[in-house]
Specification:
Number of helices of chain A: 9
CATH topology of the largest domain in chain A: Jelly Rolls
Order of helices and strands of chain A: HHEEEEEHEEHHHEHHEEH
CATH superfamily of the largest domain in chain A: Jelly Rolls
Radius of gyration of chain A: 18 Å
Oligomer: homodimer
Distance between the termini of chain A: 25 Å
Helix content of chain A: 40-55%
CATH architecture of the largest domain in chain A: Sandwich
Structural class of chain A: alpha+beta
Strand order of the largest sheet of chain A: 2-6-4-5
Shape of chain A: globular
DNA sequence: CGCCCTGTTGATAATATTCAATGAGTGTGG
DNA sequence: CCACACTCATTGAATATTATCAACAGGGCG
């Protein structure tokens, strides 16, 4: 049941058998959730800690002028609320992008595990550091790329992370985001996202059908998005 | 000598006497650095770990089209390269904004300290989490605010962090950034930053002289920047 | 069948960029 | 002490990119 999380931890830091056993011995509750369901609300006190077993989540924040910005997206294996879990308050809303399945841990159980198992501590710490790294790349994405670049970069990142989570073979995948959500992730308007996606289809970069994205020309897409996967720190996988 | 760092750690997590002694017993080297000096280069392998004793640093990244984006700015007491230090490779360039003074630690010394002293581990972990939180706010800043809002927000954040570091009384402070650098932090052009700052001066929001910023109307500035300091997690100070 | 969500289109407007030139301040060497 | 170079700030005009507003189309679902 916890396999996606254990895989991810092992990618972050190779765990010994005892570490793995200790992690699997952790008490937890499984929760099935629907698309759109809010997991954690902005400003609320957060007590537990969540591991994402299936489906996708996203964190976002609504400004006072009503504009919304998506801060991050999470794939199975991620711990989408380590931040609020450890800092005590959620600064963002955490919401399901798709239906999914969560593992709920108690904060103090995790705290104890981390104290007793340095390898797991390091793995989780690396997870938060990579979070920061991705977030920094998003700052650059939204701050310094034009619309085509931003969207291309988002598509590349998502594909890469799916592949690393073992959820993608080939170059077709389901991007579970509406154009509205892509707009909120890239700092654009939905209208402009629509027109930009059309252009990308017209020039043969990608093909979309329903929510399925097929990348026709990965190299050109990566070039357009100035995509360099270093910031995802996937080389950890190969250690 | 290490007082700024120790203060910061204590704000993040109250340390006992033994924790403090252990931290102060850490071997380190002090390095005086000039404005503009590069501390850590994009892509380089990073071995040590840095504490900022005096002056300001910033992390930035240059895209292939030549555009530059500043990802974060650090004030004395911060550990500006925990990320690259623990992940092994620097993904961004770390550079001095002003002349300053660094404390250089060895990565394995710090690693040992963290294993032996859970309170220090928690403090440093919180530091990285707050880093992420700030980074997320920057995504929202650059993604969803207009030029005036972005700059106002930057000014508010900097003032708040300076105050928290004990470097600011009243509402005047030196913003050690050129308009070019403000532009790179906010995802704007220097020309537009210039015009926007002029407008902010004209409407009496701020006053600038040399690199000194005086905030004339904090409330209006905070409103303009939609500034809510929660994301800085300074309440840790009051614990 | 009708509603709601998502995607699409067109026209217009606002915001920010680009390019190019000038000024003001600072430090350097002759 | 002055000329010179350099960096940073400022200005204007033209342009580009993206937002806004409003309307409509299509598909899935109760």
């Amino acid at each position: 049941m916890l396999a996606p999380l254990l895989n991810k931890l092992n990618q972050l830091e190779p765990l010994g058998q005892e570490d793995q056993d200790a992690f699997l011995a952790l008490p937890f509750r499984v929760k099935e959730v629907e698309a759109g369901q809010i997991i954690l609300d902005e400003g609320k006190h957060s007590t537990g800690c969540i591991g994402l077993l299936a489906g996708f989540t996203y964190r976002h924040r609504t400004l006072r002028n009503g504009a919304r910005q998506i801060i991050s997206v999470h794939v199975p294996g991620d711990f989408p609320d380590l931040q609020s879990g450890l800092l005590g308050t959620a600064i963002h809303t955490l919401q399901m992008l798709t239906p999914g399945r969560l593992a709920l841990f108690r904060a103090d159980d995790l705290q104890r595990l981390v104290s007793e198992r340095p390898a797991i501590r390091d793995a989780l710490w690396r997870e938060t550091l990579i979070d920061t790294s991705i977030c920094g790349e998003w700052v650059a994405n939204v701050g310094r790329r034009d619309a085509r670049g931003r969207i291309a970069h988002l598509l590349c990142e998502f594909a890469m992370r799916l592949r690393s989570a073992g959820l993608l073979e080939g170059d077709s995948y389901e991007l579970p985001m509406t154009q509205d959500q892509i707009a909120d992730a890239t700092g654009l308007t939905a209208v402009h996202v629509n027109r930009t996606l059309q252009e990308m289809r017209r020039t043969g970069l990608i093909h979309t059908e329903r929510r399925m994205v097929k990348v026709n020309d990965w190299d050109r897409l990566a070039a357009l998005g100035d995509f360099n996967p270093q910031y995802l720190h996937l080389e950890a996988v190969r250690n």
